[in-house]
Amino acid sequence: MAGRFAALAPLGWDARWAAALAGVDPDAEPGRVVVHHGAGLVLALVDGPRTVMFTRRLDPEPTVGDWAAVVGGEVVSILPRRSLLRRRAAHGGGEQQLAANVDRLLLVCGLDRPVKDGRIQRGTAIAHDAGAEPVVVLTKAAGPDAVDPEQAAAEVRAGNPGVAVVVTSVREGLGLDRLHELIRGASVALLGESGAGKSSIVNALLGEEVALTGEVRLGDAKGRHTTTTRELHLLADGGVLIDSPGIREVGLVAETEAVEETFPEVSESAERCRFRDCRHDAEPGCAVTAGLAAGELDPARVERWKALRAEAETAQLLARPDEARRAGKRFARAARDAQRRKGRR
Ligand SMILES: Nc1nc2c(ncn2[C@@H]2O[C@H](COP(=O)(O)OP(=O)(O)OP(=O)(O)O)[C@@H](O)[C@H]2O)c(=O)[nH]1
Ligand SMILES: [Mg+2]
Ligand SMILES: [Zn+2]
Q1: Which residues crowd ion ligand 3, with CB under 5 Å?
Q2: CATH number at residue 70
């Protein structure tokens, strides 16, 4: 099925990737990006991992999880991605690639601190943007400061209908079977704050200390990152898990559709508004306002939906400068018209 590179099947290699590779060069060999550091890539190749230096510019810029085509010891291209997890870069409006070809995104939240719905919904939108399935993983369920795990899970489920929630504790081995099931045969990435317990999950599932873990320093606003590079780990029964440095703010560059998928019930209501461009404030015939009044929609989710939609729209404008310019002109024209009307009064 996966042909001469069948040994890479546990890493996700399949007939579709083989076809993509054959289209690049009949002599090319595939390798999956395990780590991307300044000077080169560590690739998982048929005969094991190897560091390959960059000798040419690649488009797209490779990221962890990518499949690379190697010819003569050199990466000649990156196979077209099935998905890309991305977020708005921490500084500036640019886009940061988090991981490629990911099927599932584990949103890791430690129960030693409050679980924030906002973070979960941003993470969910990032997953939908990549066509990956979001799963909330609550960690440290048996810790001394942990809030009641079942109650926390119930709250997350209530605030995020349709998203699976797994309660775990690496110390007690709780929830690890469920995580194994989610990763087997799939490519799965971890996302969460520093100290949430991402690397501890990697170690627990691999059964050895491959990833560095660090003490949580509460009250340390700067937040120390123990993990500093994104890295792909292969599990014994197949499937890969991508660890990453903690991120404090998950900025969206997602398409607005990804936000709609995160709030399907609000989105469905909005489609029934009388006006196509309804702002869901005080317009007549607004189905969202009606849904709120009838107690059918959760006001917190409606607010978050509005905020995340606005954020995704802004990010899209920033990403497409000519559109932003057009929007700017439109705005300038509207402002001018408003001034004129005022003058006439
Ligand atoms: N009690 C308890 N402690 C845990 C559990 N999981 C993780 N920890 C502790 O939480 C701390 C942070 O864990 P890490 O796995 O390093 O967190 P991380 O998300 O990888 O952090 P960064 O790499 O900085 O992003 C460590 O001291 C772990 O021992 C758990 O299930 N129970
Ligand atoms: Mg870590
Ligand atoms: Zn409306």
Answers
A1: 273, 278, 280, 286, 288
A2: 2.30.30.140
